[in-house]
Write a structure and sequence with these properties.
protein transport; nucleus; Nuclear pore complex protein Nup85; Nucleoporin_Nup85; transport; mainly alpha
Length: 719
Amino acid sequence: MNNASRHDQAALLPPLFKLGQADGFFSSGRTMSVDFSPRDNSMALYATPTGDPQSSRGKGSVTASDTSIYIARADRPPAHERRLFIVETFRAFGPVQDLTSSPPEVAEKILAEVEPAEALKKLAIDYVNFCAECTAYSYGPKGREGLLQYPADHYESLYATMDLFQLLYLPGANWQDVPIGEPLLEWLNKHYIDPSPIGGDHLCNLERPWEDDEYWPYLTRAVLRGLTETCTIFLDRLQSHPLFALRELAALLSRLLNERPRMLKSATDKEFIINTRRWKHRFQELRIKLGRVAEQDRDDGFDNWWERLNEITGVLEGRQQVMKRVCSNLGLDWKERVILYCIHVNPRLHRDTLQTLTAQILEEAPCNASDPLDVVLSSLFLVETTEALSAAARVDIWLAAHLADLMEAGQAIRPERDDSGLTLREHYLIAYAEYLRANPELWRITVKYLCACGEVGKRMADEVLLRVPFKVEVHEPTNEDDESVQSPLLRELNKTCFELGREETRRMICKVAAQQVMQQRQYGMAATYSVLAEDWEGLGRNIDCMLMEYFERGPEEYVRLAKQIAPSLLKIEPDATNAIFLRRVHFALWYADFHDQRMKGDLAGAASDLLHMFRRDIAPISWWAVLLSDAAELLQSGTTMTFQTNEASLLLRILSEVTNRSEQDAADDYLPLLAKTTQGGDYPSALQRLQIVRLILHKYYAKCSLAGTGKRTAVPMMY
């Protein structure tokens, strides 16, 4: 499928049908089906029958396109500089959430160091700086453009927009009520450079630059943009002009431009306004000298320099009609006109009146409705936040998401929920998170954006977390505690779930991990993950599987597997939900210890373990017959009186219960496991084994009675 952007149309290659033949395709008994990937935002498209056998009858054989599967994506996966940009800008997203959505104690800690308005301003500036860095990187060495996913001017657009938003909406407490002109002009000169430095270099290299048609338009633009140094250079070049009047006027204008008051250098707003009024009053001298220039000297044969200077003087005096005419002649767009009006016509204009001025100028010089960036900028000037976000989404969903986040934090938009249960901010953040899903490796960032979007976003984050593919690393058998057995990715998933408060999701992930390692016969790790998941039934199944290893691979392998279980499992306090399963863990470990002692030759220790399992009611009744058979084998394996008389009596009573109940239709409860150890593998064989056990125990009991001490003694045992 063609790699189209979010708003472009896409075509299937090779095509399923030719252009204009859709009706024929559907009437042939076929239709298009779509399956969406659970891991990312890709989709699979393919042709399928409609299920109507009449419509597909006699339509010919199946073509290659009928069996083709088309993989498509709604977005290009973020890569190269784009991925770096996403990761870097995410560093500012978290602190915004800490400030606006965290518990009061967290927010108070942040605000203890800085006021809310200043804190938001700083975070907005962080976004601006990240955009600036990516823009500079994109304009890097020649040849890098081939490695970029997005062109440099795209990042310049993000840079300009975030910079303007911070200036207008989050200026900080100390800048809220100051005249807006100079900050806006600084923004304009930073992001929309005019006049061109290349054109200026060309004119400066000319011996008589005023003879060039671009000289006076260039000088006028420099004056409008407040480029004092450039203006001084160009006016100084006029000192070589043959007309004395022009040389005199150029020197006076240059001096006035260099003496212009600056708001940023003024102690107060009032001081700036007074100094500006006085400065404009000094243009009367320039006006008088302009009026004294004779008509025949006002044109030097290349241009009407007098008219040009007259227009420049009118602009600097703040004459609105002159300003409007000059902007129109130079073809300036709406944003230049708004900002230059704030500089030259009404330098006292504040943020609260900028909206009205912008609306008036847009009637004369409309924004380019086909350019989403221009719509975003004009909407920000007009304080039309909903329209700004809608257009920003067309520029870049990243821009819309982070603007919306900052707008709600700065109370520029209200956190009202619609019918879907989402606020405007959450809509754009979720849309951005969906874009991030195009690259599954960005899941760490994706889930944090989603979890900032209420319950709807958190549920979506759960689905992302559950679909992160991981494989538990299987190490050498160990009985280390919980943390040491987790694979790095699984540990990170658990940590992320904990940080985001997604406890149920964390349990489900651990449950999956337990199933993975159980299939690899790593029962110790599986038990640990089951406990982390609080999946007690899963823990029971895992222990049962490990116990079955005894029958399939023998006691040595069983003991090895049991030693992998972490000791911490034995310290868990039982309750109504887990007691039965924890008892199964205890039995599995005691039974492993029994065989371990037996194989090491410690028959007394083995006998003690076996009796402990009966007396403490640890052994399940399904294992009683197996334990009795083990006891008989224990008696046959050495010369030590391994059981006392009362202990042998206990074993006989248990044997009697097993035998009697097995013969009374309860064989399914007692005999299946013992049957696995017999040659016949059935209940009769198991009962026959129990009869042998009975004989061995009776003989042993008789020997104990003859010994007379009731204690364990080393006497010859004969059977």
